Amino acid sequence: MTTTPHQDAPAREGGEPGRPREVVLSLSGIHKRFGAVQALTDVRLEVAAGEVVALVGDNGAGKSTLVKVIAGVYQPDSGDIELSGRKVKVGGPRQAQDLGIATVFQDLALCDNLDVVANLFLGQERVKGGAIDEVAMEVEAWRLLRSLSAKIPSVRIPIAALSGGQRQTVAIARSLVGKPQVVMLDEPTAALGVAQTAEVLNLVERLRENGLGVILISHNMADVQAVADRIVVLRLGRNEAEFHTDEVTTTDLVAAITGASDNVVASRAARGKEQAHD
Ligand SMILES: Nc1ncnc2c1ncn2[C@@H]1O[C@H](COP(=O)(O)OP(=O)(O)OP(=O)(O)O)[C@@H](O)[C@H]1O
Ligand SMILES: [Mg+2]
């Protein structure tokens, strides 16, 4: 993985149509049941290197369950997971990390009283001659934060002193310590204001530029449309629809998420079209 930021990286709007990209993560036929609840039914998902795929859907659609299956938190009842074309079993979170799958869960799980460096390397400290190598970790911390163009004033201040957006930044940087191929972000902007949301969306762009496959879960359609290349809609635990971001309207997206026929917004839009034809 290269971490050198692109010079004058092309805007996504320019697009790179047809440019073949390596599929880093591929899921097919994923089923997961919790007792009487069939949470996932025959779900498929693909993410390429340098691609941001948004995973959207209503509450209970199965997004978090799918992420947890990929992250090794849950074992699927059946289905295949491939990394760079190789079939894998993600036995647990630790194994997911070793395979190059990183997850930033919604609660971030940072230690408020520890500084940025300590949080980045918690449980994966750099050691030299039997002692913790603070210098190496600090150098690596700055390198990681620079690769994200992150705005963190110091790596030696406690997490408690950082803003929500800066904490999200640290959590994302921490997910990169193990040099993953795939990063999953669960609702990274849910608790953030306008400026901080923009900052985190910029971060997602940096992850893409660095060649990672990114899976972004969000309920915010504006965020999704701003940053995703592709949008996968889950509904009632199944693949409902899939769109290229530049080819879908918010109305279509909402219709897919809610089920077009029983949706007020969608039927209002449909009525509008009919009237336009009259
Ligand atoms: N550990 C569990 N035990 C039992 N049922 C579960 C468990 N986890 C999820 N479910 C059920 O599986 C279904 C999918 O839930 P999931 O959390 O994946 O949805 P989601 O799309 O993440 O929703 P939200 O947007 O509310 O976070 C729901 O019906 C949920 O109640
Ligand atoms: Mg969820």
List the secondary-structure elements in sequence, H or E: EEEHEEHEHEEHHEHEHEEHH
CATH superfamily of the domain at 20-109 and 181-247: P-loop containing nucleotide triphosphate hydrolases
**Average pLDDT figure:** 86
Q: Name the poorly predicted regions.
A: 1-15
Task: Please indicate the percent range of residues in DSSP E strands (runs of 2 or more).
Answer: 25-35%
Intertermini distance: 56 Å
Gyration radius, rounded: 20 Å
Helix-and-strand structural type: alpha/beta
Oligomer: single chain
Number of helices: 9
Instruction: Quickly name the level 1 CATH class of the domain at 20-109 and 181-247.
Output: Alpha Beta
Explain briefly what this protein structure is.
The chain has about 280 residues and is an alpha/beta fold.
Describe the structure.
This protein is of the alpha/beta class. The chain has a domain at 20-109 and 181-247: P-loop containing nucleotide triphosphate hydrolases (Rossmann fold, 3-Layer(aba) Sandwich). The chain has helices at residues 63-70, 93-99, 116-120, 134-147, 164-175, 194-209, 221-227, 250-258, 264-277, and strands at residues 23-34, 37-48, 51-56, 78-83, 86-88, 101-104, 127-128, 131-132, 182-186, 213-217, 230-235, 238-244. The strands form three sheets. The chain has a six-stranded mixed beta sheet, sandwiched between helices. A hairpin with a 2-residue loop joins strand 7 and strand 8 (131-132). Helix 5 runs parallel beside helix 6. It is globular. Mean pLDDT is 86; it is low at 1-15. Bound molecules: adenosine-5'-triphosphate and magnesium ion. The site of adenosine-5'-triphosphate has 11 residues, from strand 2 and helix 1.
